[in-house]
Amino acid sequence: MANIDQAPSLSMPNLLHVLPAFANETELRLNTIVELNSNTLNKYELITETGHLKLDRVGYSSLAYPFAYGCIPRTWDEDGDPLDIEIVGVTEPLIPGSIVEARVIGIMTFDDGGEVDDKVIAVLADDKRMDHITSFEQLGAHWKKETTYYWEHYKDLKKPGTCRVNGFFDVEKAVEIIKSCEARYLAEISPKIVN
Structural domains in the chain? Predict the structure, then answer.
């Protein structure tokens, strides 16, 4: 996984535009660019043009991210960003900017101030502690409540009432949305890339 199919270069490739979304589609393994870890108020985002991380904002409340978080290469969601992914059950902090393979276990559909901003739900593909988790349902009712609460309230001190979780869905729905975001990337972003 650590190598990309590209010749060495004096300029670094932007992995957001080089790596495919799926590392292994049969095994539901996604390439994921880590943006932040759980228990942080800082929101980092990938600069799509360069591939660098930028501090987008410091959270307006004391609600910290309850999961690791990142984006999926070569995808484009309706909000004008790469498709988001939350990685649950991470036992050791991940390095922001690193690439991990995450295994899809579901998706949360989300409305952020009127924009579709869905979140793939995943576990680290190579963490044996997570091998038995194949569906977000196995994370339990409290996990679902905590995740819903986080997303519906994390902007309350800035823009109250603007975020709404629309539902949690299975792996099949997640793959359908990922494929849709891959198609949007190919139609809207890929033609703009310069070599």
Answer: 15-192 (3.90.80.10)
Q: Are strands 68-71 and 115-116 parallel, antiparallel or unpaired?
A: unpaired
Tokens matching residue 129: 């502690």
CA dihedral 156, 161, 163, 165 (to 10 degrees): 110
Cα–Cα distance, 136 to 66 (Å, whole number): 15
Among 65, 69, 154, 185, the active-site one is 65
Query: Taking all residues of the chain, what is their mean pLDDT, rounded to a whole number?
Result: 94
Establish whether 150 is a catalytic residue: no
Query: What are the tens digits of pLDDT across the range 62-115?
Result: 999 999 999 999 999 999 999 999 999 999 999 999 999 999 999 999 999 999
pTM of the complete model: 0.94
Q: Is 35 left (phi over 0), alpha (psi -120 to 50) or beta?
A: alpha
